[in-house]
Write a structure and sequence with these properties.
The complex is a heterodimer of chains A (about 110) and B (about 110). Chain A is about 0% helix and about 60% strand. Chain A contains no helices and eleven strands. In chain A, strand 6 and strand 7 form a beta hairpin. Helix content of chain B is about 0%, strand content about 50%. Chain B has about 110 residues and is mostly beta strands. In chain B, strands 2, 4, 5, 6, 9, 10 and 11 form a seven-stranded mixed β-sheet that branches. A four-stranded antiparallel β-sheet of chain B has the order 1-3-8-7, with no helix packed on it. Classes of the chains: A mainly beta (about 110), B mainly beta (about 110). The interface between A and B is medium-sized, with 24 and 26 residues.
Chain lengths: ~110, ~110
């Protein structure tokens, strides 16, 4: 069964610090991996998409990496801000068929001033 | 403005009273889906639809029904709600299958007493 595991489950950091969130998956064959940011009480919003041939992709202070061989991805947040407090969800889509995505349970990030 | 609109945002109902949560998208997306989100469990897919008149079960379909008579609308129906269906529900749409970016609605917080 396809699975997406995220770690840590929750994380508390001080404003201005960096942090890295992890995502491991077993989805095969692989199509793409997305990181979503979900503010409390709102729907998730896509941050980045990684395809098989991509190793690194940045979106402002967010940098995602992908190692398709080990089936691992990370999301690095630089110089965190209070507005980064949210849940970050890793979603992996398989290739072929209906491309049904598999969701991780998310990492809850709290940034303290 | 491109968006996914869910209604209502909040709903409190009693056990057994049929209800419908509406979802509409204005992006001409083919793929639409419903998710429920519970603490510690992340987003779980209830049903999805690849196109008009094509629907299929997700991971947690029991107690729910859907229909896709028009491309833009994908209502979620609870024929006989029970307290274990108390949750935060999200509708999402994407251009094609799950490997394209999902756009989420604002969420519907349902309480069944």
């Amino acid at each position: 069964k396809n699975q997406v595991e995220q770690s840590p489950q929750s994380l508390i950091i001080l404003e201005g610090k960096n942090c890295t969130l992890q995502c491991n998956y077993t989805v095969s064959p692989f199509s793409n991996l997305r990181w979503y940011k979900q503010d409390t009480g709102r729907g998730p919003v896509s941050l980045t998409i990684m395809t098989f041939s991509e190793n690194t992709k940045s979106n402002g202070r967010y940098t995602a990496t992908l190692d398709a061989d080990t089936k691992q991805s990370s999301l690095h947040i630089t110089a965190s801000q209070l507005s980064d407090s949210a849940s970050y969800i890793c979603v992996v889509s398989g290739a072929g068929g209906s491309y049904i995505p598999t969701f991780g349970r998310g990492t809850s990030l709290i940034v303290h001033p | 403005e491109a968006q996914v609109t869910q209604n209502p945002r909040y709903l409190i109902t009693v056990t057994g009273k049929k209800l419908t949560v509406t979802c509409s998208q204005n992006m001409n997306h083919e793929y639409m889906s419903w998710y429920r989100q519970d603490p510690g469990l992340g987003l779980r897919q209830i049903y999805y639809s690849m196109n008009v008149e094509v629907t299929d079960k997700g991971d947690v379909p029991e107690g729910y029904k859907v229909s896709r008579k028009e491309k833009r609308n994908f209502p979620l129906i609870l024929e006989s709600p029970s307290p274990n269906q108390t949750s935060l529900y999200f509708c999402a749409s994407s251009l094609y299958g799950g490997n394209t970016e999902a756009f989420f609605g604002q969420g519907t917080r349902l309480t069944v007493v």
